[in-house]
């Protein structure tokens, strides 16, 4: 499906990013695993090596433009091309609007939205020259429907959807597709951190009566990263068990 493609995945140490990297590797891609902490990425790369997948770990804070440039340079040095970019790194700093601090707003917007911008800007220069690219942004259901206590996070994910559509229009003529995946409520460390009451309320809203898995998201990303999605761009693929339609 993605045989011999080179895929850069941010936030690849754990959770959804890790599952995406594993799925792309299983599909035949070579992996550039990026994360703010190198340790988890290196563990993933070592694991991939055992299955014969070529991969490299790169320490990168996606909120820093110089780090994004360094990430792209490291990928080019190792593999000489970048076919797929998955902007997955994301954080939460939840709190009610009236109590939300400026630094909580800034941190979330910096990682979730500016991070995707600077990584896409850096990678798209390579992809434009190649006349090929697949960019997948991991948005969120709450970027579509809002969520009390997550003004910063929802704004970042709604912004990411706007960024996806704008970049899709700009890059289409270079044979680069840009799509978003909007996960619903997925079982990872991020949702594990929510209070039990909030988790129960969210779970009760899912028609499929289960939380999603990181693999549910990875499967959608794998499709969007493959040649099978060649004529799909600027779209938001909801993977949410019917929670929002
Ligand atoms: P997670 O378990 O918290 O993992 C996030 C990963 O991103 C971690 O490996 C983390 O590194 C890394 N990261 C954080 N800040 C970074 C930065 N500045 N630069 C580079 N890497 C950074 O989260 P997840 O649940 O897998 O979520 C992955 C993506 O899916 C996020 O964009 C999230 O918003 C989105 N999403 C998740 C859900 C859900 O229900 N879980 C729903 C909708 C959307 P460390 O390990 O060092 O902290």
How would you characterize the overall build of this protein?
The chain has 245 residues and is of the alpha/beta class. It has one domain (6-239): Rossmann fold, CATH 3.40.50. Helix content is 49%, strand content 16%. It has 9 helices and 7 strands; from the N terminus they run E-H-E-H-E-H-E-H-E-H-H-E-H-H-H-E. The protein has helices at residues 15-26, 38-50, 65-79, 102-130, 141-145, 151-171, 189-192, 196-203, 214-225, and strands spanning 6-10, 30-35, 55-59, 84-87, 133-138, 176-183, 236-239. The protein has a 7-stranded parallel β-sheet, sandwiched between helices. Helix 1 (15-26) links the parallel strand 1 (6-10) and strand 2. Helix 1 packs across helix 9 and helix 3 (65-79) packs parallel to helix 4. The protein is globular and about 45 Å long. The two termini are 28 Å apart. Residues 10-11, 13-17, 35-37, 40, 60-63, 88-91, 111, 138, 140, 183, 185-186, 188-191 line the site of NADP nicotinamide-adenine-dinucleotide phosphate.
Unreliable spans: none
Strand content: 15-25%
Taking the sheet with the most strands, its summary is: 7 strands, parallel
Average pLDDT for all residues? 97
The ordered H/E elements are EHEHEHEHEHHEHHHE
Query: What is the number of strand segments?
Result: 7
Outline, from the CA principal axes? globular
CATH superfamily: NAD(P)-binding Rossmann-like Domain
Q: What ligands are attached or bound here?
A: NADP nicotinamide-adenine-dinucleotide phosphate
Work out the helix count: 9
Radius of gyration: 17 Å
What's the CATH architecture?
3-Layer(aba) Sandwich
């Amino acid at each position: 499906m993605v045989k011999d493609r080179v895929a850069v995945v941010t936030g690849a140490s754990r959770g959804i990013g890790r599952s995406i990297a594993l799925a792309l590797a299983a599909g035949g891609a070579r992996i550039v695993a990026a994360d703010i902490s190198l340790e988890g990425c290196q563990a993933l790369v070592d694991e991939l090596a055992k299955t014969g997948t070529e991969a490299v770990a790169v320490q990168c804070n996606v909120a820093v433009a110089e780090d994004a440039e360094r990430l792209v340079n490291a990928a080019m040095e190792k593999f000489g091309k970048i076919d797929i970019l998955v902007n997955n790194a994301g954080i939460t700093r939840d709190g009610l609007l009236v109590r939300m601090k400026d630094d909580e707003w800034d941190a979330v917007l910096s990682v979730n939205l500016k991070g995707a911008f600077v990584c896409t800007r850096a990678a798209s220069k390579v992809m434009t020259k190649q006349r090929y690219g697949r960019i997948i942004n991991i948005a969120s259901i709450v970027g579509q429907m809002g969520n009390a206590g997550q003004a910063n996070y929802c704004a970042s994910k709604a912004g990411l959807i706007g960024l996806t559509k704008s970049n899709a229009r700009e890059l289409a003529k270079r044979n680069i597709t840009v799509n978003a995946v909007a996960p619903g409520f997925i079982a990872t460390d991020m949702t594990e951190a929510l209070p039990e009451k909030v988790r129960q309320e969210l779970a009760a809203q899912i028609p499929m009566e289960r939380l999603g898995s990181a693999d549910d998201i990875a499967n959608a990303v794998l499709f969007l990263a493959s040649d099978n999605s060649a004529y799909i761009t600027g779209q938001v693929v909801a993977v949410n068990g019917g929670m929002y339609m």
